[in-house]
Amino acid sequence: MAGKFKPKLTFRMRLRNKLSLLGLFLVTVNAVFSGEPSTATNIPTNGYARSFEDEVLLVIEEPEFTEVIENITAAAGRNVKFACSVKNLGSYKVAWMHFEQSAILTVHNHVITRNPRISVTHDKHRTWFLHISNVQDEDKGRYMCQINTVTAKTQFGFLHVVVPPNIDDSLSSSDVIIREGSNETLNCRATGSPHPSVKWRRDDNSKITINKTLTVTEWEGENLELTKISRLDMGAYLCIASNGVPPAVSKRIKVSVDFPPMLLIPHQLVGAPLAYSVTLECFTEAHPSSLNYWTREDGQMIHESRKYHTENIIGSPAYKTHMRLVISNIQQNDYGTYKCVAKNPRGETDGTIRLYTTAPPTTSPKPTTTDPPSRNKDGWANGDLNNSVYGNQTSLNMHLADKGSKYQSNLNEIDKSEQKSSSENDSKGVIYDWPASDDSSAQTIKISTLWVPILIIFLYQR
Ligand SMILES: *[C@@H]1O[C@H](CO)[C@@H](O)[C@H](O)[C@H]1NC(C)=O
Ligand SMILES: *[C@@H]1O[C@H](CO)[C@@H](O)[C@H](O)[C@H]1NC(C)=O
Ligand SMILES: *[C@@H]1O[C@H](CO)[C@@H](O)[C@H](O)[C@H]1NC(C)=O
Ligand SMILES: *[C@@H]1O[C@H](CO)[C@@H](O)[C@H](O)[C@H]1NC(C)=O
Ligand SMILES: *[C@@H]1O[C@H](CO)[C@@H](O)[C@H](O)[C@H]1NC(C)=O
Ligand SMILES: *[C@@H]1O[C@H](CO)[C@@H](O)[C@H](O)[C@H]1NC(C)=O
């Protein structure tokens, strides 16, 4: 029962039994695309059949396609329609099929497939429209329009379905907390058609440190391998998936780098005369944020009072904090040792500042207050300000700004003497240069716990 049949008979059959028609079309489709003529083989050709066919062909003009079927590219979710224009259809019928699925979709005005997104319309003239609503990826392929002439006539158009990219959250990295110095690979898995490409950027557009020798502003690939992560790598990373089908999508992955507190003490020896005020300073770096406080040498915590004013100024990046302790109206028992302490879940660090007495300046009346600290735009006091300094009685160099004075010790000489005295007198104390990557211009750090040096050396090796 291949293609050679009387049309009338065929379609009477269809009305009784759609299923058998479906089989019929499938045979036809296969025959056409395997290159065999659909009139082939299993029908015995006798003289009568042939003469009947010839007779019909002579009398009736064969149906013909009048236009090619346009190929369609559509994004998933759209509605599309294919048009098949036929002249001289007569009593023949037009069917739509999906070639790859070997499925008859519609015949004449009837929808055969169970796919509810398929429908068929006719413009009452020549054109038969196949409608596909809410196009899905599985709908892609070759759509055939076929006329059930004795030798079936077929033409086709392609449907290309494109799918905008999507990032699969379950297969992609989410926010991570990493110990400084460890390695981490961030993943971003994206789907879409065509297959999307994935690239990485940092949210603030700073460079991505891939390894010791390679930094990039953009990294391409589903995996972003970060080796020996440092605090400078902390921040939000974006993976961006695109395939030319809008919209591109991105996922923001926050990378937190944990490390124990580190302290930078620009001035470990600070001199001030009786009755003056003085400001002691420590700079900390810690993530997660440390608990910061000051103590006297006896370990007693210093609380806010008329004598003491403490401040923690968050820096930039936010793992930096500027600790300030203002001691007002210095009395004899205020001289001695002060400690700034920083604690976080990764560890604890403290540093010592010694306040010693100096002679008051003779050139002006005693001030009773300190000036507000001068700060740069990040809110950090500038450690290298040319402030009045009590470093050494002989080097006393006071600028009395109106009625106030500043007693921040800023001279390099003091730093040098500090280094010396610290190493001589503090058995636990170790002095390191601050890592060069740090934007602080301060020169020394004093650390009284053992693990920080290891960390610093580690930083150096990066
Ligand atoms: C549709 O696409 C096919 C294959 O890509 C091509 O051979 C055919 O010419 C295209 N048809 C039209 C109308 O562009
Ligand atoms: C991190 O990666 C580097 C380079 O691939 C490797 O040499 C090192 O051993 C890794 N470190 C850890 C802690 O896995
Ligand atoms: C850094 O990473 C790039 C890219 O993965 C690699 O080609 C290069 O060898 C790496 N360099 C080092 C020092 O690991
Ligand atoms: C401090 O300021 C004075 C005058 O303002 C200037 O002459 C001197 O060079 C400065 N010293 C430093 C170390 O900046
Ligand atoms: C500190 O004063 C002493 C004498 O009192 C002097 O020898 C020394 O050079 C001074 N140091 C500095 C850094 O000015
Ligand atoms: C360090 O110790 C020595 C002797 O122990 C002492 O003479 C010196 O003044 C001390 N220096 C400081 C800065 O405390």
From TrEMBL:
SMART domains: IG, IGc2. Pfam families: I-set, Ig_3. Keywords: Disulfide bond, Immunoglobulin domain, Repeat, Signal. SUPFAM superfamilies: Immunoglobulin (SSF48726). Residues 63-155, 165-256, 260-354 form the Ig-like domain. Residues 1-31 form the signal peptide. Residues 349-388 are annotated as: Disordered. Residues 357-373 have a biased composition (Low complexity). PANTHER family: CTX-RELATED TYPE I TRANSMEMBRANE PROTEIN, DPR-INTERACTING PROTEIN EPSILON-RELATED. This is Lachesin-like isoform X1. The gene is LOC108564215.
